[in-house]
Amino acid sequence: MKVAKLPTILVIVQVLFIVFFAIFADYAPSANAKYPENSKDADKGGADPSKNKLHSLYDMFQHVHVMIFIGFGFLMTFLRRYGFSSVGFNMLIAAFVIQWHMITHGLLHMATEHSSSFKIDIESLLTADFAAAAVLISFGAVLGKTSPLQLIVMAFIEIIVFVCNEYIGLYFFKASDVGGSMFVHIFGAYFGIAAARILYNSKVEDSKKEGSNYHSDLFAMIGTIFLWLYWPSFNSALAPGDDQHRAVINTYLALASCVIVAFAISSNSKEAKFDMVHVQNATLAGGVAVGTSANFMIGPWGALLIGSVAGAISVVGYKYITPYLARRWKAHDTCGVNNLHGMPGILAGLFGAIFASFASVDRYGNGLYEIFPARAPMENSTKLLEIQANFTISAGDDRSAVQQGGYQFLAMAVTLIVALVAGAITGFIMKMSPLDPVKERHLFDDGHYWETPSDFDEAVQFCNGTDNCETVNLKSFDDEKNAEDPDN
Amino acid sequence: MKVAKLPTILVIVQVLFIVFFAIFADYAPSANAKYPENSKDADKGGADPSKNKLHSLYDMFQHVHVMIFIGFGFLMTFLRRYGFSSVGFNMLIAAFVIQWHMITHGLLHMATEHSSSFKIDIESLLTADFAAAAVLISFGAVLGKTSPLQLIVMAFIEIIVFVCNEYIGLYFFKASDVGGSMFVHIFGAYFGIAAARILYNSKVEDSKKEGSNYHSDLFAMIGTIFLWLYWPSFNSALAPGDDQHRAVINTYLALASCVIVAFAISSNSKEAKFDMVHVQNATLAGGVAVGTSANFMIGPWGALLIGSVAGAISVVGYKYITPYLARRWKAHDTCGVNNLHGMPGILAGLFGAIFASFASVDRYGNGLYEIFPARAPMENSTKLLEIQANFTISAGDDRSAVQQGGYQFLAMAVTLIVALVAGAITGFIMKMSPLDPVKERHLFDDGHYWETPSDFDEAVQFCNGTDNCETVNLKSFDDEKNAEDPDN
Amino acid sequence: MKVAKLPTILVIVQVLFIVFFAIFADYAPSANAKYPENSKDADKGGADPSKNKLHSLYDMFQHVHVMIFIGFGFLMTFLRRYGFSSVGFNMLIAAFVIQWHMITHGLLHMATEHSSSFKIDIESLLTADFAAAAVLISFGAVLGKTSPLQLIVMAFIEIIVFVCNEYIGLYFFKASDVGGSMFVHIFGAYFGIAAARILYNSKVEDSKKEGSNYHSDLFAMIGTIFLWLYWPSFNSALAPGDDQHRAVINTYLALASCVIVAFAISSNSKEAKFDMVHVQNATLAGGVAVGTSANFMIGPWGALLIGSVAGAISVVGYKYITPYLARRWKAHDTCGVNNLHGMPGILAGLFGAIFASFASVDRYGNGLYEIFPARAPMENSTKLLEIQANFTISAGDDRSAVQQGGYQFLAMAVTLIVALVAGAITGFIMKMSPLDPVKERHLFDDGHYWETPSDFDEAVQFCNGTDNCETVNLKSFDDEKNAEDPDN
Predict the structure, then answer these.
(1) Nearest alpha carbon to residue C434 among C6, C2, C1
(2) Neighbouring C-alpha atoms within 13 Å toward the C-beta of A109
(3) Is the Cβ pair C305, A121 closer than 8 Å?
(4) Closest Cα of chain B to A274: distance in Å?
(5) Partner B contacted by C111 (CB < 8 A)
(6) pLDDT band for position B405 (cuts 50, 70, 90)
(7) Is residue B426 predicted with pLDDT exceeding 90?
(8) Is the N or the C terminus of chain A less surrounded, counting Cβ atoms within 10 Å?
(9) B161 to each of B167, B191, B421, how far by Cα in Å?
(10) C-beta atoms of A391 and B39 within 8 A
(11) In angstroms, what CA-CA distances link B80 with A91, B85, B338, C458?
(12) Range list for CATH 1.10.3430.10 in chain A
């Protein structure tokens, strides 16, 4: 076998990953047979198998897992000639990210906690999936316009920045973002949009391949609906007890109201017709918009309100803002991630900051300190001891509600800036020729990257030379195929 | 933006929902941070986060959730030119119903329990999904023949009647129906069929668009199989302990035998060929037919028997009864919900009544009083106290087995009558012209309601003017497109 | 209704199943209302409903259930004209097997345990699904080349052999195989390949119908991804506590690395293009290859290594070994189960034997005796009592690590031989004419077994008599249709 560039790089990467894991990774105690408690029965001081950490998270983890691989993967198959790449590269990138995130996240925590290895448990698997979501959102912005190698490089850089940004948000700003609307959605969306802006090629607008067909739109709905169904798990997976229960309810409600409003605004056009792009995407905006405050005491009506606003903004975004960004700002956003993740993410951050500014012990009980650890009283204060008599919390910074709101806002703003800057820099790196940037005629086209079945080209041949076929918009592919194509 | 009728109505509805929720809805204690027990550690009398009510139901809830949105949604995509509407309107209706059901169900229980608000927890989400199932079954009967506005009106009325009928069945008749075969399946099926009868348009029979194509049949199988897989959760979600375990086993077995018999009867034709309509639908009839008695002690063989009978009846229904109903009774049932939900539901009700008539403490232990609360002894009776010494139950009506069987039958009969009458009345309301009844040429056609990709119409243009294409049955659409169409 | 052969046989089989269940099957105590503990509250010595066995397994069971019916079913829809059969026969066979496995497995255990009935609980449902996996793997080898009747006969025989082989492996050799890589994957693959070898028809190689189209490849990805997602559940479902947690982690990691390497090797061709066949199948090989040792202390890096090797071997298998086997050995393996299940299964067995040879108490703690019960000390030995003071285990055979490794290898070798011999014999039985072997022109074609929608044949008629359509490779079907076909 002759060895080519991409395979070589992928194999080297995987070998390096194995080496990193061999040096630094180990099972967490709850997954480690060697851990002494696992060698004893529960009534002899051992670990109770039925209470293994796996059980409290596995269900939620699997929901998120489905969202990443089925949800994002199929959502992007709406492009009629890019389905293999959508679902295939989605899988490749995610498989890369879940390993790379464990390493970067692990190394960062080893550094800050002065430990010599990082431990893997079900929570590592879950947070790796969250990180994959950020990269796949960015993938949505550049969909159809990048080579696999560019995507791997993007994922490589993005995860490093993602881990650092999240660390700053969670540990410096002590912001609360249970559903990752800031650290995952805003980050992924604007990172991707910035990269797409730098990669902009004016020929993108002319491509007749960027569009759906009837069945590709149905394949995309598989992704949409699984995302919609499991979003409550995404937003609640890492919350405990009543917080988790509330996050499920709020997300479910926000998604329900978002559907109604998205359908409403979608059909509010001259022809009074619904648009599948809106149904596929805007119906999910409620899940993003409620993400930061999903475990807050926003009230069921608050969740419905947030979902409604998000649905409206998202559809308006698809109708007006996406074309405007492409035309005026040369930011061509293939999947419209600005409308599904970007603006609803900002909405989530704003709602989060506002609600945090009004959060009180009166309304939250001691749960306040679970959700906003920085609001807990200082170390050794009388107030802390009083609370700790009833409820296990750590010492905090004694922040006021408004201070917490300010930090929430700060975390959002920093995330936005970091994402834009890092995305743009990554875009410049991706443009470098060794990464095989996509030629114009290969935009939105599986043909260059995949062995394709005969009907992929038949669609074109079918109509050659007959009059009534000239109207078929797939014909243009044919011309491209006949053109000299040295590297295809 | 010019504002049109449907968007306006949807937005007003959503605003009203938010107002209703703001006035009446609150988190249940297990989802409410303010609840004092949530502010204490479990060992100080607080609520144990790991035992939050969410955990016992979330898994089952998500299975049912998948059934509603993926299962029903994709099952109906079998129509070759109505896939967008099938999966899209399914989503719209379900999102409407889950909010509207919480309100109506909440108000009813506020009235009967003299409380000032209704509480939302994971069980509310689950029962809202059950209610959505009823409406989506009705949707199956009228599929392709109604406007979105008609569907919203149908859902609005149907839920009110659904909540009342279920209340009567559960609280007056004290019938047991763990899988909702009576209150969900019979109700939804005959409500929809009655409405379809009133909406009957003789041109429906001529429509060349009512049919599948090769890939639309595969999309439908996604729906079928997820329904088939998660049906044990549907039938067992609300049962406790061994009852739940038994309901899972019985449903799994009934579905397995149903598949064998449905395939058998399906291929028993002159050509000895299987029919995808049967595989898509009749294979599920076992889940419906065992629904009422899923938690009864019917024995594993009993479950297999019920499933077998249901599979046979359902296929026979598709082969003979659906055409007969359409021809003779003008009841055109697009998805054949009579065969999948109606007759198997009646079967479930009958089996339920029969098995209930033979249920004894000897066979059920004290579980008898969990399944049939009315069979528990009267308040203050010695017998009640004896039982309560071992097992927590409430006082009942001291019903005999046969009495319980009679009430089971009564609940079924009342459900059937209520559904038919309410469905017919709703059909008349849906016919009113402000609700935009569907014109003949728009039957079973996404083109009137959706922006469609180019291949939706290409399929027609493809063959214009060539001889060998005259046999293509999509051609008829072309003529319609050329006809004057003032409102398209 | 005229009664035909297949329907008659299916109905008789189902009736016999019901009779078998009526005589021998009963609910397990945890699903039986009659069981006295279920009639008492937990604090009075009764069973705690919240700790019902259902809850510890239901989640995992449903994941496996999805793998069997969605995963295998859709994975095989890649054939462009065999989608109905793939997903339909998959459902039929699995529904047959889950009943038949309960009976055979039940009878075997009744015989060995001298009991008069077999008990059904959630574990029975789960192991029945595992057994279905074996048969469906065999189905993959003969896909498109067998009649439904042949498949039922194959399933009937295969399950009997499967149950016996597994019994020998687990109870005589006391081999550990938590993910069933030996007893399910090796067994199913080589049983199917042996049967396919006997059924070999040289015309298979000429069939123009054996191939995918663009959308059938996307349908197949639904199967692939659900298999990929839920494989950690398949490999861990029957392990307890930390073993289960570790099995989830190891499988997740092996699958992730497998994706990277499979993509790498796939695109390492002259054209540098990915192949959907590899993405659909080879990405899963890591799950198989780590199956036997998923709960061993192989280390996270060990899991990554196993997955990488499996991904490489599997793609190489699709590229070189499958064509070679068909050409040289007349073993035509439609889905390439040798590459996805066969060779990775052998890899799993070898890795299992090697790792078992190095397993020590030092590395595993007392968990060693959970994973390898035969390594526990002999009955009444001091060493056993010492362990039992801390940890509940049964007496074993005091095997050494190397002995255990030897038995692991033996179990694999016996499984391979049993599968090949039994598969070949079954192939000869399947060839008998009363089982309706498939005629050449019906290979890989739904048309003979299913009512097909108009576009199934339109594809052919479309191009009749026009010049530019001669290149369309579906044309050949047309000739066959025109040929005399007495039994179609």
Answers:
(1) C6
(2) 16
(3) no
(4) 5
(5) no
(6) very high
(7) yes
(8) N
(9) 10, 10, 10
(10) yes
(11) 30, 11, 22, 14
(12) 5-27+57-358+400-440
Do the Cβ atoms of A340 and A381 come closer than 8 Å? no
Is any Cβ of chain B less than 8 angstroms from the Cβ of A217?
yes
- In chain C, where does the domain assigned CATH 1.10.3430.10 lie? 21-30+57-439
Backbone angles phi, psi at A274, to 5 degrees: -75, 155
Across the interface, whether the CB atoms of C69 and B229 are under 8 A apart is answered yes
Closest CA to B44 of A382, A395, A373, A392: A392
Residue range B57-440, CATH number: 1.10.3430.10
Residue B132 tokens read as 């959505």
d(CA C66, CA C56): 18
Amino acid at A408: Q
Report the pLDDT value the prediction gives residue B134, as an integer from 0 to 100: 98
A63-119 residue pLDDT tens: 999 999 999 999 999 999 999 999 999 999 999 999 999 999 999 999 999 999 999
The yes-or-no verdict on residue A464 having pLDDT over 70 is no
Cα torsion at C319, C323, C324, C326 (round to 10°)? 150
Signed CA dihedral, C142, C147, C148, C153: sign only = negative
pLDDT at C319 over 70: yes
Testing the interface with A: which of C77, C82, C274, C277 to mutate, by most A Cβ within 10 A? C274
- Find residue B120's DSSP bridge partners: B27
When scoring B2, B3, B8, B14 by the number of chain A Cβ atoms within 10 A, the one with the most, hence best to mutate, is: B14
State the chains in contact with B (3 or more Cβ–Cβ pairs under 8 Å).
A, C
Residue C266: the pLDDT is: 97
The beta-carbon neighbor of C30 closest among B221, B228, B245 is: B245
Q: How far is B96 from chain A (nearest CA, A)?
A: 7
Q: What does C163-213 look like in DSSP terms, one character per residue? A: HHHHHIIIIIS----TT-IIIIIIHHHHHHHHHHHHT--GGGGG-TTSS--
ipTM score: 0.94
CB C21 within 8 A of CB B300: yes
pLDDT in tens, A344-398: 999 999 999 999 999 999 999 999 999 999 999 999 999 999 999 999 999 999 9
Q: Which fold has domain C21-30+57-439?
A: Ammonium transporter fold (1.10.3430)
CB B129 within 8 A of CB B68: yes
DSSP structural state of residue A439: P
Provide the residue type at B479 as one letter.
D
Question: 25-54 in A: which are within 8 Å (CB) of B?
Answer: 51
Contact B122 A245 (CB under 8 A): yes
Q: Which of B77, B152, B226, B454 to mutate to test the interface with A (most CBs of A within 10 A)?
A: B454
Distance in angstroms (rounded) separating the CA atoms of residues A323 and A313: 15
Q: Which candidate from C4, C17, C455 shows the least CB-CB separation from B304?
A: C17
Measured CA distances, C19 to B177, B300, C121 (Å): 27, 11, 19
Neighbours of chain C (3+ CB pairs under 8 A): A, B
Contact residues on chain C for A47, CB-CB shorter than 8 A = 241-242
The minimum CA-CA distance between C202 and chain A, rounded to whole Å, is 24
Sort residue B144 into left (φ over 0), alpha (ψ -120 to 50) or beta. Answer: left
Out of A241, A252, A261, closest to residue B47 by CB: A241
Contact B304 C21 (CB under 8 A): yes
Contact C53, C122 (CB under 8 A): yes
Record: contact C390-A41, CB cut-off 8 A = yes
Architecture of domain A5-27+57-358+400-440: Orthogonal Bundle (1.10)
